[in-house]
Amino acid sequence: MQFQWYPGHMAKAKKAMQEDIKLIDVIIELVDARIPYSSKNPDIDTLANGKARILIMNKSDLADNSITDKWIKYYEDKGYFVVKIDSKNGKGIKAVNGVIQKACSKKIERDRRRGILNRPVRAMIAGIPNVGKSTFINSFAGKACTKTGNKPGVTKGKQWIRLSKNVELLDTPGILWPKFEDQNAGLKLAFTGAIKDELYSFYELAILLIKFLSENYPSVIGEFYQIEDFGVSESEILELIAIRRGCIKSGAKPDLDKAGRYLIDDFRASRLGKITLEKPNCD
User: Fold this and answer.
1) How many other C-beta atoms are found inside a 10 Å radius of the C-beta of residue 34?
2) What is the model's pLDDT at position 153?
3) How many CB atoms within 10 Å of residue 246?
4) Hey, what domains does the chain have and what are their CATH numbers?
């Protein structure tokens, strides 16, 4: 399977971010805690241009906690200010404002020496599609400021949001990068829903997810779907899932594409448990 998605609005959004970066004090980049490397857009590093960097590990409630802690250390060692949050339920949100002030402490002190008081920190919110930027902003602001959705592409344009006298946020659309050099990264983005579902086969995606889970979380499929015999291939496991979920088409045959969709949905909703798809290189 080949994974790629870079519609025209993403190219326009990237160009707008390049123009706005001069107005920004700090870049707050959201990544998916289940794929903290694959969901980190390398183009943001180029755009950052020496700005202070905060990395928000969102959806931490869906990820393997022990691996998340390793990722936090990995990025802190690279000079990022890192916060793990669950923006949907508001966990970890209160810590973000303090981290913003800490990341911009030199800028705030420089303004103070110049006699500039109470100028709000300007932060750009960046990240890939469907990483939860809008949900984070609404939770951070304590009110509905942006549209939210569980599919990529909800935010189409930029908008400034005044959170308080201390912080202003510039929300930007989710952008990927023009070409995935590593198709394995594209696969992980597809697993988590950062790429439009219409672009690939749920059957093929489910087969690859079963392979990963069998190697890294060998008990989760059997426990969740109550499947006992695992001496079978990935396609046979998907057949068993289809039978368990009642995915049967005409001729009493298992509907493997429908079962694959169920498996991917169960993974994305964390019904299979807290699962992280990658570990830091230092591990």
Assistant:
1) 27
2) 42
3) 11
4) 8-171 (3.40.50.300), 201-268 (1.10.1580.10)
